[in-house]
Write a structure and sequence with these properties.
This protein is mostly helical and 416 residues long. The protein has 2 domains: 180 residues, Growth Hormone, Chain: A (Up-down Bundle); 212 residues, MFS general substrate transporter like domains (Growth Hormone, Chain: A, Up-down Bundle), CATH 1.20.1250.20. It contains 17 helices and no strands. Helix 10 runs parallel beside helix 13. The radius of gyration is 21 Å and the shape is globular. It starts with 17 loop residues before the first helix and ends in a 22-residue tail after the last helix.
Length: 416
């Protein structure tokens, strides 16, 4: 199949390329299932009598493969056909979610079986993510990449607004199995759409070990990059442990369970969508500073739930957190793309991704253990404090204020 990148003169917008329309469709279908998956996974554990410890184990097992296999996924994405990697990765995820749906529906689900399915899903994600990032550049000409990324991001965030709400009502009305089955179906449909892209394997000129060594040297030589990653290690772990692990448990005890937790997730998704719209208009000069400050907004909903504030306040803070996170993602991505040479971006992106995920399994397990000794609200406040502290410490790094937007002539001065 011919891609837009093969014939750039034929298109004036990414949506005119059949390959990009196929890619967008697959992304939307997959997101329609994945938007319900976190809530369904949490309540599949709760339905079989699990608490914070069980949910922490399941979430940790889902995260471990993304640490272990992410670098391998990045290397495969630079050496094999990305459309085939996406096809088999989505099929593997579909199988895992389908098996989980069957065990939950038949009443045979246990913490161990749910954790195994989560491990398989995490393994699939470690290959899907880097292949997805590289596929867009193969499908769309360089001059349309920013527009293509926006077109991918906006509809996906719109789906995420309704997905948790629908998922909350589905889980509350009929249990988690139906939401998990839907997720498996969407992974399958996306797999066959992505296979049709038929993307050629990228060319490689050096060995695997040489690529990894060069990537690590480039990563460590940029203080702003590894310090941002180190701060992200703490921030991401605290956010996921607080929001994904303790959030559903607090909602089950303090609010109206799956329904209200679905509303909280929908408010967060609305914030992501609003943040994307903000970034389409606002182009800050101090990119990295904005990314660090905006990421600190993730502390707000955790603090609101920790203090036992009313649901409307929690929804407002989740909305603000979503806005902040999306602004942080866009600002960080732009800074990374402008200040890291193109030839090094794939490897250093993998190092950054692994670094930010290193503490997630440990964070889940420590939070689950802490929830047995202290009440969940106190642990949520501790997670909020860690997020705020990570942002403040990162702002003390001088290089953060030197990584700013480059335009025109400045674009040639890539940070070394």
């Amino acid at each position: 199949m011919e891609t837009a990148a093969d014939s750039p003169s034929m298109i004036s917008t990414p949506l005119r390329a059949a390959a990009f329309r196929r890619f967008v469709s697959a992304n939307l279908i997959s997101t329609a299932g994945s938007a319900m998956a976190p809530l369904a996974l949490a309540y599949s554990v709760i339905e079989q009598g699990g608490g914070a410890g069980s949910l922490g184990l399941v979430l940790a097992m889902n995260t471990v493969p993304t640490i272990v296999f992410l670098l391998a996924g990045g290397l495969f994405a630079d050496r094999l056909s990305r459309s085939k990697i996406l096809f088999f990765g989505n099929l593997l995820a579909a199988g895992a979610q389908g098996a989980l749906a069957v065990t939950v529906a038949t009443g045979h689900a246990t913490t161990a079986s749910i954790a195994v399915c989560g491990f398989v899903s995490g393994t699939a994600a470690s290959f899907i993510v880097p292949a997805t990032q590289g596929a867009v550049a193969q499908i769309v000409p360089a001059e349309y990449l920013q527009q293509a990324n926006a077109l991918l991001r906006l509809p996906s965030n719109m789906v995420k607004v309704l997905g948790p709400v629908v998922g909350g009502f589905v889980v509350a009305a009929s249990g988690a199995a139906w939401a998990l089955a839907w997720d498996a179906f969407t992974f399958t449909a996306a797999a066959f759409l992505l296979l049709g892209l038929r993307l050629d394997a990228p060319l490689t000129t050096s060995g695997v070990l040489a690529d990894l060594r060069a990537g690590w040297t480039g990563f460590w030589s940029r203080t702003w990059l590894w310090t941002y990653t180190a701060a992200g290690t703490v921030l991401v772990a605290a956010w996921l442990a607080g929001f994904q692990l303790l959030g559903p448990l607090v909602a089950a005890r303090q609010y109206a369970g799956a329904r209200d937790w679905g509303l909280v997730q929908a408010a967060f998704a609305c914030g992501l969508l609003a943040g994307t719209l903000v970034c389409l208009r606002w182009k800050p000069y101090r990119l990295l500073t904005v990314a660090v400050v905006a990421s600190g907004a993730l502390a707000l909903p955790l603090a609101a739930m920790g203090w036992g504030l009313p649901l409307p306040v929690v929804l407002l803070t989740a909305l603000v957190a979503g806005i902040g996170l999306d602004i942080a993602i866009v600002a960080w991505t732009t800074a990374f793309q402008q200040h890291v040479p193109h030839a090094e971006q794939g490897r250093m992106s993998a190092f950054n991704g692994v670094g930010e995920r290193l503490a997630i399994p440990l964070g889940y397990l420590i939070t689950a253990l802490a929830a047995h000794s202290w009440d969940s609200q106190s642990v949520l406040l501790a997670c909020a404090g860690m997020i705020a502290a990570a942002a403040v410490v990162n702002l003390c790094v001088p290089d953060v204020y030197r990584v700013n937007r480059l335009t025109g002539y400045d674009q040639s001065r890539i940070t070394k």
